[in-house]
Amino acid sequence: MSDPNPSPSPKRGGLFLDCQIRKALVLQLKLYRRTWECKIVAMMTKEISGGVVHEMPTDLQKALSASEAAMKKWESLTPLARNEWICWNITVKQQKTRDEHVKSTVKELQEGKRRPCCWIGCIHRTDKKISPSVQGILDKKKAKKS
Question: In 3D, which of 53, 73, 54 has the Cα closest to residue 63?
């Protein structure tokens, strides 16, 4: 008859120990996975600062959330600088152009740029008068449309 409680042999002790190590590793992996899932959810749901006049559009928010470097740079910008980027992204007419602007925004922030290049500035601000040079550009655009 076999003994119901056999004495631990090196083989059985080894198997038992391996099983405990395996369980501990599985538990650690589950905890590690949960930690990263929480970090990803926090990153995706983190409120991203907007501008002075404009709210953060969802397409730009998603793009910034996907890049930690761009996100850090974004949060280091002044509200006026963020407003310039947002305005630059939302004032285009075609979706294709907007998609390109969103990609460019992330890329240029990763490169360290603080403002969009060659941008006349946000014309939606009401806290200050539009500069004469910007007004001249707007007048020329208006004249072309007429």
Answer: 73
> Higher pLDDT residue, 88 or 31?
88
DSSP 19-69: HHHHHHHHHHHHHHHHHHHHHHHHHHHSPPP--SSPPPPHHHHHHHHT-HH
Instruction: Check residue 63 and give left, alpha or beta (phi > 0: left; psi -120 to 50: alpha).
Output: alpha
> Tens of pLDDT along 52-69?
888 899 999 999 999 999
Per-residue model confidence (pLDDT) at position 75: 93
C-beta separation of 70 from 109 below 8 A: yes
| CA 9/CA 81 separation, integer angstroms | 71
130 near 123, Cβ under 8 Å?
A: yes
pLDDT at 39: 52
